[in-house]
Amino acid sequence: MIDEVKARNSKARNIHVVNSHRYMMESYDRDSLFTERYEESLCRYCKYISSRIGADVLTEKPCDCCGKMMTFANSNIDDLCIDCAKTHGHCKHCSQEMN
Predict the structure, then answer these.
(1) pLDDT score, position 56
(2) pTM of the model
C-alpha cells in the first residue's frame, strides 16, 4: 500500500528543491550582487550556486598560490588567500578566473 502522506510530503519537498534551484539560477543570471561578489573574490558559481556546506571542524590549509597558511571554521575551504585571489583576479574558493 502507498503511504499517501509520505507521497504528498515527497512532492512538496521536490517542488521546494526545484524552486530553490530555479532561484539560484535566476540569481546567477542576474548577478545583482556583482560588487559584493568581487569584494569577496568569488566567481558567479561559488557566490550563487555552491552550497559551501562543510563539517564543523577547524581546518588549516596553505594558499595554492603563495603558501600562506589559512584557517577556516569548517571543512569547506578556499583554494587561494584573499590577497592572491585579488592580485590575480581569480575566485578564492575554486581558483577559476573571475570573468
Answers:
(1) 82
(2) 0.80
Cα separation of 77 and 60, whole Å?
Answer: 8
Strands (E), the chain: 59-62, 69-72
Of the chain, the end-to-end C-alpha distance in Å amounts to 54
Taking the C-alpha atoms of residue 99 and residue 94, their distance in angstroms, rounded to an integer, is: 13
Grid cell locating 13:
519537498
Contacts of 83 (CB under 8 A, 6+ apart): 66, 68
Say which DSSP state 51 is in. -
Cα torsion at 53, 20, 89, 60 (round to 10°)?
0
- 28 contacts 45 by C-beta, under 8 angstroms: yes
